[in-house]
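Recall from the previous lesson that a structure prediction takes nothing but the amino acid sequence as input. Here we apply that procedure to SDR family oxidoreductase from Leifsonia sp. NPDC080035. The sequence below is the only information supplied.
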Amino acid sequence: MTGGSRGIGRRIAELLAGDGMDVVLTYRREAESADAVVEGIRRQGGSARAHRLELESEADIDRLFEDEFGDGERLDVLVASAAASAFRPLAELSTRNLERSWATNVRSFVLLAQRAAQRMPAGGRIVAVTSYGSHRAFPLYGAIGSDKAAVESWVRHLAGELGPAGITVNAVNGGLIDTDSLHHFYGQGGVPGLDVMIPRIPMARLGTPDDMAEAVRFLASPGAGYITGHTLVVDGGMTVVAPPFRSELGRDDPTRSGTESTPEGRQHTAPPQGER
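The prediction returns the following tokens.
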């Protein structure tokens, strides 16, 4: 799996290793963190190893498979969790920003899926981790949000092509998940703070890496063998609501006051259930 040194990727690696999988997790810069994840998994009796990977490099992706899955070694599950991009307004995105974002988030997923499928002769699972920026537009997220939308489109196309080989391809789309990356993004100037965002989520809390990891775990399991080409949204209901948000309504909010507004603006008390 890619991006297994911290956050969501770390919990995915730990859960899958706990289920008895031999986990190969990749990292780009966080060697010490990746080693700590591997050591923790091994202390719990699991099997894991870390491999440095530059997702922008096709040669590095080839090297990963040659080193870790050579000599016909079978691969059962590929999880693409790593992502990176520039958080900038449209006018400030350079060609280099766009190229690197696409190569890291989209091209790498297709290359990984190609090579993984070659090592799944008896079928397997491919799961991509995406985010709610794939279907909602918000400031500074255009580059990676569009890339994640492209990944979800690739999930559908790959599912259609790889299905006859017994390979399922799905995505897990996360909302506001409590990770370092989330706090980095919402800590930038001009972006509303999490104290503003959390009350807008129907579940009234941030998601956790475990929430995401359990969804990936399910899609990687035998129980998900007939699910393919879909995106499972794990966002506490955030993307099913729209303004006005309940947290921003005044005292006239009928869900909190027990009253209902008439067309003229007057209010009357709603009768108890069963009374007329």
